[in-house]
Specification:
heterotrimer; A alpha+beta (194); B alpha+beta (202); C alpha+beta (135); A: 194 residues; alpha+beta; Muramoyl-pentapeptide Carboxypeptidase, domain 2; 6 helices; 15% strand; globular; B: 202 residues; 5 helices
Chain lengths: 194, 202, 135
Amino acid sequence: MIGVGKMKQYTNVLDRPLSKGKQEVSLSAFAFLFSELVQYNQTQVDNIAELERRLEDAGYAVGARVLELLCHREKGNRRETRLLGILSFVHSTVWKVLFGKVADSLEKGTEHEDEYMISEKELLVNRFISIPKDMGTFNCGAFVAGIVRGVLDNAGFPAVVTAHFVPVEGQQRPRTTILIKFAEEVLRREARLG
Amino acid sequence: MPPVAPRSGDAIFASVERVNAELFTLTYGAIVRQLLTDLEEVEEVNKQLDQMGYNIGIRLIDEFLAKSNVSRCVDFKETAEVIAKVGFKMFLGVTATVTNWDAEGTTCSLVLEDNPLVDFVELPDTCQGLYYCNVLSGVIRGALEMVSSYLNGRLGLSVDNLVSMKTEVTWIRDMLRGDDAFEMQVKLVKQVPEEYPYKDDE
Amino acid sequence: MANTACFMIVSKNDIPIYEAEVGAAPRKEDAAHQHQFILHAALDIVQDLAWTTSAMFLKGIDRFNDLVVSVYVTAGHTRLMLLHDSRNDDGIKSFFQEVHELYIKTLLNPLYLPGSRITSSHFDTKVRALARKYL
């Protein structure tokens, strides 16, 4: 039975217009889904490192798509060619669309030239999952680290990206830092471009 | 005290914290991809998606009941309506319609035209048997199974009125297979009078 | 309409994932292979150029006899490449932009593996229609 819905029937996905990104679902719907993603992956691994790697891989493919979609829709088809440009794209555009806000901070590492950190007081995926003590340093933010790596790698800025809990003085819960370590080729190209 | 009016799906959705549906859609896509890689057999993926949905369904019922103030659903018909109008809306931001009731009122269809699980999904030839949205059938099944037992507990119904709604959910229409909507048939399989062994301790 | 036009989509890893002869001239097997070879040979130039601008459309980046190579580099470094004899830059740009959108939609399919061949016949039909319209 054809209902009274407003959505037109398209013969093929390629005929359907790209979404404007305004549709929403409840946070809890996402939380339930994400929780199943984590729990499923727990059954597939023997240790925390493997669990994080699987979540990162799951996020990577999301990042590849997010890069293309958002550059087109939000940045008027502007392709980032500089390091600070792509970092700003991640910290502002990607974060705003996926998490509803720009990231709390973007900092350059003080000890290493090739390191940058995007930090969030309460990363969305860490808000509703409490890590049991026997899981040590496991961070669900690995999924987000994967998304970031997917964006950076496909944009031509390969990097190792990991998620870490960082205790903050005066705060009960630690903040989450996404640590980005760029490959050498990226820094060489940056130097060359001047 | 007069009974509190049940809140509309729109009102609840407006009052809860929300996220961009794209995050949801992309994450679900990542889950399906992982399952296809790990399990290879499409039928296994369908089963796993249904199980995940079931796990979600039995957990979300708490929030559903707490936020929607629905009075005791007197029968399956009312329950289905509430799930379609309030349940879907408060979690997915879209409403479903309930149709095709059979004469006994134990089978109906839930029809969805707008589905945030799906965006630009096209089933490749290797995945023709995949029920991409199968998580939904599990959610419906899990939620319905829990509806009655929670209501029974909270409202202190007499032992004669306790029921559990076990259902079978099957896909009738699938937009990814060229249909014009997503349609799940929900069939009550048994109304099981619930065991309430601790009643005498209260 | 362009007499000769060979269109190719090359993945970030330099692998062709789609190609089509979209010119008005009758198709010739050898010509098609030669066209793809020319486009592939231009990849190095494209790679260097891509880092000098944030624009996606790079027109006339290489020549071969009376044929010109124009390229459109997406955010993810997928290259839309066109070997053509026409000088209709505006038409070419529009063609690239519309195919770009088709590519994004293809990529958004969670069951499509990025970097793999685009096999959808609907995609092919639409690309050819866009070529007739703009080139």
